[in-house]
Amino acid sequence: MPAVKLGRVQKPDPIRGIIEGSIINAGLTKKILAKKTGIAYSTLCDRMNHPEDFRRDELKRIFNVLEMTDEEKQRIPW
Q1: Which of 19, 42, 47, 71 counts the highest number of beta carbons within 10 A?
Q2: How would you write the pLDDT of the chain (78 residues) with one tens digit per residue?
Q3: Would you say 29 and 23 are in contact if contact means Cβ atoms under 8 Å apart?
Q4: At a CB cut-off of 8 Å and minimum separation 6, what does 64 contact?
Q5: How far apart are CA 32 and CA 70, in angstroms?
Q6: Quick one: how far is CA 18 from the chain centroid?
């Protein structure tokens, strides 16, 4: 029987929720956010689906573009 490669299970994540909410509040789309942050759209989508893969520098660029408050940033589990 062939081996089965199981993918990662997507689960609710506070990082994803906070970022998605901020994208909506800023009136942006993921494509526009990707362009403004210099993160490839496919990479951004992958990171949104698996937030544990975000690098700190990517999150910082996203926070800057979305003009997130310190309170919003503090809710992110680093």
Answers
A1: 19
A2: 565 555 555 556 788 888 999 999 999 999 999 999 999 999 999 999 998 899 999 999 999 999 998 888 888 776
A3: yes
A4: none
A5: 23
A6: 9
Q: CB-based burial of residue 7 (10 Å sphere; 0-12 exposed, 13-18 middle, 19+ buried)?
A: exposed
Residue type, 46: D
| 66, amino acid identity | L
5: Cα separation from own chain's centroid: 25
Q: Which residues contact 30 (CB under 8 A, 6 or more apart)?
A: 23, 41, 44, 45, 48
Amino acid, single-letter form, for residue 4: V
